Backbone:
């Protein structure tokens, strides 16, 4: 999700917009982990100090001037592109967390409760973690409504990536998630096991909680029984995403058609958002509503790829109709092949293991470029046919 800056020894830290109590908590938390300033830098002087000292980490207070802290994020990143920025606060606030992530902050820490997270963030910024490289690409798979085929697309896109890359599917549909069932997996642990032990979450713990399909796709599954959703917080989701992005080259997050705190967080921090609709009036209307919500959350249009699933020549709406209504280009169309898709679901198998010649599989294979190349549009036999169909009457 983010770059980690490499350095040697203790991390150099600049603290901005924090009162004396906050400075005390930071000193107590970091100890000898970092080279700390004697006092906090005022907001107005932050850019100048960062430009001069070029620190590993900026710890930004979010309680004194929230709007100022958000505005400072992008400007400090311009000064030092590899800067690791940590927002700290005395309280949890989902809206503030999302705003921090959009502004470029890698962590949102509530002190003193999240002291371990602050220590880990500063340590990684100083030492670069293992290899100090870039973390994996996070792809949010979002449906305009239930029944759009998001899970089918997610697991089969992952299977197309898995021969070359380390790939994980994270099922974030906390009501009816069934990514594991689509692959006929019976996981012994699931995402709730991670949520109950976030304080111990690392790559080793994550590896012990994923199910592995023969295709080499790893799946972080939902439990088979329905669970109480009240304890799912956006920051908990973020912790899981961060760990998974550090372990895999591609993390495909199945959000289904849900709208909740977790899916808000996923779409906010994702590198690519694939918005899936079908070519019907109701689905496209809901896609428009979902798109407006994403834009209000601060997600840029150029991060979103619109995919029209279950496409055929008799579709209720044309490609031009959909683009005109949504104000967003169709990045890919996926052919409708209901018999093959239904058989794959019933058997818990991938499309390629049911029918390698399926037009749905052909179009999914082409759509991989939306993820690996960040392509704005991919042409398939289905999309070409729909294009030329505009000139037939």
Residues:
């Amino acid at each position: 999700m983010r770059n980690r800056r490499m350095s040697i020894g203790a991390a150099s830290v600049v603290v901005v917009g924090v009162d004396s109590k906050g400075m005390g908590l930071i000193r107590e938390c970091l100890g000898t982990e970092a080279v700390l300033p004697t006092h906090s830098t005022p907001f107005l002087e932050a850019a100048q100090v960062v430009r001069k000292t070029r620190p590993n980490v900026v710890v930004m207070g979010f309680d004194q001037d929230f709007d100022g802290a958000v505005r400072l994020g992008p400007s400090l990143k311009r000064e030092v592109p590899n800067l690791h920025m940590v927002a700290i606060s005395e309280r949890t606030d989902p809206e503030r967390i999302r705003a921090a992530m959009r502004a470029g902050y890698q962590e949102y820490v509530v002190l003193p409760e999240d002291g371990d997270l602050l220590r880990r963030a500063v340590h990684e910024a100083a030492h670069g973690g293992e290899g100090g490289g870039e973390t994996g690409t996070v792809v949010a798979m979002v449906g305009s409504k239930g029944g759009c085929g998001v899970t089918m697309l997610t697991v089969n896109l992952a299977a197309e990536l898995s021969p070359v890359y380390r790939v994980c599917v994270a099922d974030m549909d906390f009501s009816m998630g069934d990514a594991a069932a689509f692959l006929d997996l019976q996981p012994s642990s699931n995402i709730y096991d991670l949520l109950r032990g976030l304080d111990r979450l690392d790559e080793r713990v994550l590896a012990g909680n994923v199910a592995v399909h023969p295709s080499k796709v790893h799946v972080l599954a939902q439990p088979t029984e329905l669970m109480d959703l009240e304890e799912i917080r956006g920051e908990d989701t973020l912790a899981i995403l961060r760990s998974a992005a550090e372990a895999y080259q591609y993390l495909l997050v199945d959000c289904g058609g849900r709208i909740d705190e977790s899916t808000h967080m996923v779409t906010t921090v994702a590198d690519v958002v694939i918005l899936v609709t079908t070519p019907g009036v109701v689905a496209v209307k809901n896609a428009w509503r979902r798109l407006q919500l994403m834009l209000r959350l601060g997600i840029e249009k150029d991060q979103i790829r619109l995919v029209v699933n279950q496409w055929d020549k008799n579709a209720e709406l044309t490609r031009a109709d959909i683009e005109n209504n949504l104000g967003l280009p169709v990045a890919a169309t996926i052919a409708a092949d209901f018999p093959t898709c239904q058989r794959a679901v019933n058997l818990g198998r991938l499309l390629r293991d049911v029918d390698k010649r399926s037009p749905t599989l052909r179009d999914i294979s082409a759509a991989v470029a939306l993820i690996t190349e960040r392509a704005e549009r991919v042409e398939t036999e289905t999309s070409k046919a729909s294009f030329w169909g505009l000139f037939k009457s």
User: Anything to note?
Assistant: Residues 281-296 form the longest helix (16 residues). Residues 2-8, 129-133 have pLDDT under 50 and may be disordered.
